Amino acid sequence: MTQSLHTAVIGLGSMGYGMAKSLLRSGHLTHGFDVTQSKIDRFIAEGGTPGRLLDVAPNLQAVVCVVLNADQTESVLFGKDGVAPQLSSGAVILSCATVSPDFAQEMEARCAALNIHYLDAPISGGAVKAGQGELSFMASGSSTAFAKARPVLDSLSKTVFELGDSAGAGSAMKATNQMLAGVHIAAMAEAITFAMTQGISPDTFLNVIRKCAGTSWMLENRAPHIINGDYTPHSSVNIWPKDLGIVTDIATAAGFAAPITQTALAQFQSAASFGLGLEDDAAVAKVYAHQAGLTLPGEDT
Amino acid sequence: MTQSLHTAVIGLGSMGYGMAKSLLRSGHLTHGFDVTQSKIDRFIAEGGTPGRLLDVAPNLQAVVCVVLNADQTESVLFGKDGVAPQLSSGAVILSCATVSPDFAQEMEARCAALNIHYLDAPISGGAVKAGQGELSFMASGSSTAFAKARPVLDSLSKTVFELGDSAGAGSAMKATNQMLAGVHIAAMAEAITFAMTQGISPDTFLNVIRKCAGTSWMLENRAPHIINGDYTPHSSVNIWPKDLGIVTDIATAAGFAAPITQTALAQFQSAASFGLGLEDDAAVAKVYAHQAGLTLPGEDT
Are B18 and B161 contained in the same domain? Predict the structure, then answer.
């Protein structure tokens, strides 16, 4: 049996909501918080515990922070009405946003000054796995932070990569994974449209490439969206200017040239500038199709 | 039982030699030809049939051409002492080099004028699978060309993708696969060195990424070469300026911008200019390491 904790999830987006539900299902007393009141209400209706964040904060043993980026993470933890100073000594914060390693280290130090534990805990796996409690965590932090977070990790994860004994390593690994994932999506888009210029249908492209050395996890996952002409956002174009921007910022700070990542980033920025930001990230293929005068499946001719 | 043919393999490099051995093992009467006499002698010693190419050509039912590029293919088939005009009507040529679709169509037309069948038949899988008769073919050509080539394909392949009824489609699909494969190798090199700047070891990189959305077939195949510091060329750096150059030439001719492919091509061109052309293609990581002042596994510090 997993130990039952008093927890809160801050940020009830597609990932956070699923994680909050997974914590509930595991028997944790769980609050859900968000800037949108209707999401809070919906979560309470499904079994979440009511209460204002600042009222319940002193009782929380673990806080899972699942917001968009570093700015939102800092605001939630240390901004006006930030939760970190309200927590009791010994509580743990699991910070799941994709941020720079430097930022994660700064958060860990500021939490330590309050006698709070901080786990650098970015996630991978998508909304469906969040709801199933089968995420992957790329985590780093002190052994105490891991121990305090363990019941939460057990409820949310299929795999926990333990990457080091201080914050930063988890975020560095997440940035590395995002770098590859983003490049592979854009490369798939470049290749599927290149193939179209040579008379190869998107369908044939996937059927052959998935069995050859040119395949990737992202290609097999995203190419079907293009074949079906379905750009319902499982993960949106707008994720990539943000995440690849974090990667190139980290690279620049380290004096590291990342030309392929920079080029993929530019393609996602083009996609966003064409008004595709809220579509599924496979819509980066529309940038290529537009440039080459191709008609993708499902598009009006 | 596979029908036994009288065949010849032209080009006894690492791929061609393995393919010639696979044809022998299947019971085909097989000649091997190469610009290097010692390779011919070695193949005869292992069971190949002796004879000068121009003497045996009228008797050949199938010719497998496994040379480096379009220039060599044209020279072997139609140059001085070229084999195509010496073949008997109804013979089939399987052309395996990576070439442009336009070139493949031109070869098919010139063969048709001689009443010879041409199968556009680029291959994927590497030298080991060539020797095991387990290659993948990305093939296109007339139904007669396929029928005549079938006993050879049966002896050499695990999978034959039949991509269309005329030459060009096979080469287009091969170019598409090479585009992705080359980009994924360079992206792996960019990511594994980026991770090193953040304190993540190449070992940890592979252990985590292979289980995450950032993985690719090429990443899992090539990253171990970097981890082991072993650049024995399974496939050399020099392949990629050639193959990605073919891709960008095709793209340019089609008015298609391929910025990620262009960027990966530039990284392989840098690797070649650093004198790494004959090393395994994973050595493109050395371009990144050199730029960032990193020491890869197995390098002297």
Answer: yes
List b or e across A214-250, with b for residues whose CB sees 16 or more CB atoms inside 10 angstroms.
bbbbbbebbbebbbeeebebbbbbbbbbebbebbbeb
Q: Is A156 on the interface with B (CB under 8 A)?
A: no
Q: Please tell me if residue A218 touches chain B, with a CB cutoff of 8 Å.
A: yes
Query: What residues of chain B, 34 to 53, have a C-beta less than 8 Å from chain A?
Result: none
First-to-last alpha carbon distance for chain B, in angstroms, is: 58
Domain range for residue B210? 172-292
- Which residues have a Cβ under 8 Å from the Cβ of A114 and sit 6 or more positions away? A84, A85, A87, A89
C-alpha B112/C-alpha B230 separation (Å) is: 46
A69 assigned to some structural domain? yes
ipTM: 0.93
Q: Do A214 and B177 touch (CB under 8 A)?
A: yes
Nearest Cβ partner of A176 from B175, B205, B258?
Answer: B205
Does A264 sit within 8 Å of B169, measured CB to CB?
no
Q: Domain check: are B287 and B206 in the same one?
A: yes
Nearest to B188 by CA among A223, A216, A168: A216
Quick: pLDDT tens for A171-226.
Answer: 999 999 999 999 999 999 999 999 999 999 999 999 999 999 999 999 999 999 99
Bridge partners, B130 (sequence order): none
Given B21, B39, B148, B174, the catalytic residue: B174
Least CB–CB distance from A208: residue in B138, B200, B217: B138
The whole-angstrom separation of Cα A9 and Cα A101 is 22
Q: Which site among B135, B190, B291 would you substitute to test the A interface, given the most A Cβ atoms closer than 10 Å to its Cβ?
A: B190
Enumerate the residues of chain B whose CB falls inside 8 A of the CB of residue A201: none
**What's the CATH number where B201 sits?**
1.10.1040.10
Choose among A176, A186, A217: nearest Cβ to B200.
A176
Q: Which residues of A touch B188 (CB under 8 A)?
A: 180
Pairing of strands B157-162, A157-162: unpaired
* Residue B60 shares a structural domain with residue B76: yes
Contact A31, A23 (CB under 8 A): no
pTM over 0.90: yes
**A139 part of contact set with chain B, CB < 8 Å:** no
Write down the pLDDT at residue A234: 83
Residues 6+ apart with CB under 8 A from B70: B97, B99, B100, B103
User: Contact at 8 Å (CB) between B4 and B29?
Assistant: yes
> What is the pLDDT at residue A1?
52
- Is A215 found in the same domain as A132? no
Co-location of A22 and A131 in the same domain = yes
Catalytic residue check, B242: no
- Of the partner residues B169, B221, B259, the one whose CB lies closest to the CB of residue A199: B169
